[in-house]
# Entry
Amino acid sequence: MASTAYRRLTQLLHSFDAPPAPAPPAYVPPPASNEKLDYADLAILDLSKARTPAGRQALAVEVVNAMATHGFFYVVGHGYTPEQTQRIFSIANLTFDAVDAEEKKIYVGESDAVYEGYKPRQTWNIEDGVQDQIEHYNINRHVGKRAHPQALRPYLAEIEVFARHNHFNVLYPILRLLALGLELPEETLVEQHRFEAEGETSVRFMKYFPRSVEEEQRTRQVWLKGHTDIGSVTILWSQPIGGLQILSPDGTWRWVRHMDNALVINAGDVLTFLCGGIYPATRHRVIQPPADQVGLPRLGVFYFCMANDDVKLVPHHRESPVLRRVGVKRLCRDEDAPTMEEWRRNRTVAYGTSRLVPSVEEKGVEEEVISGVVVKHYN
Ligand SMILES: O=C(O)CCC(=O)C(=O)O
Ligand SMILES: [Fe+2]
# Structure
């Protein structure tokens, strides 16, 4: 045990002490699709305007509108240059391409209740007996919590800097806007998402591998089933391979268009819990990329945000004048509300493996009950 802790610590200290790591093998992103697709018309928020109180008030209105319409929006002005972003994608890619199968096995997550380390391909049911072709590598924002494969070690300090950038320069400003939208004190949601707190807010690298024609047919081209995210806010670093779709309020799946060096932000279950339905978790899925990108692997970089583990997921209905005016939509009674830790554990254990039952009310929707709350899956 002591030796594992020692190994983790020395890996981390070494990565901070070491001279700047050499450039990782360059990942050159393929061109974006030219197909004519039904794209969602998402708002673009310039986060650099959040530095002044007046800017934040104006942006809060934009966030409330974006959440009420699509539940997804783009962020620009986030402070990373295109070169910094490209370097992170190169580090993400080497996590999959520069680590051999044997070494990957050592770093597969040990617990099915926490996403950490590698998730190998073919662990989730998609449809008709077909499983996913998705590999993950999940890194807690405190990167020294676990040991990492050899190829990643020179970049650990850089990955923690990246996590901090997402947390302090993207997540916190967004949480302040969401709080303003509820007429709450600006720091209300920030306090519930402390970088230093116990919890699983993490960087995730993700690579989707192309599938056989037969698998595409049997799953009706679905690569990742329609879902809402488990946490509060998801920060997706936009990348050019299409496939991400969101379910619009009119019931149509629409494509999310790539925007160079932008972030795609969406709300997860925890915002529904905390904000009483004003910021509903958005339903989305990933399907086979458009015709001009078929056969290409699809690399993703994310920051999945959760509340502190000990936060009880009860809406701010007493403090928020907005929720008092419009009424609160609850997922459960306050006394039954799970903590963040309970919710993420139960959702993570069940994800992609639990038995789903067809919804009585909605066609094509399957359901399961987690912590007393109905969770829906969309095909
Ligand atoms: O790969 C994507 O674009 C989205 C992935 C996603 O929705 C998820 O991992 O929760
Ligand atoms: Fe998602």
Q: What stands out?
A: The chain has a mean pLDDT of 92. Residues 27 and 158 are 17 Å apart (CA to CA).
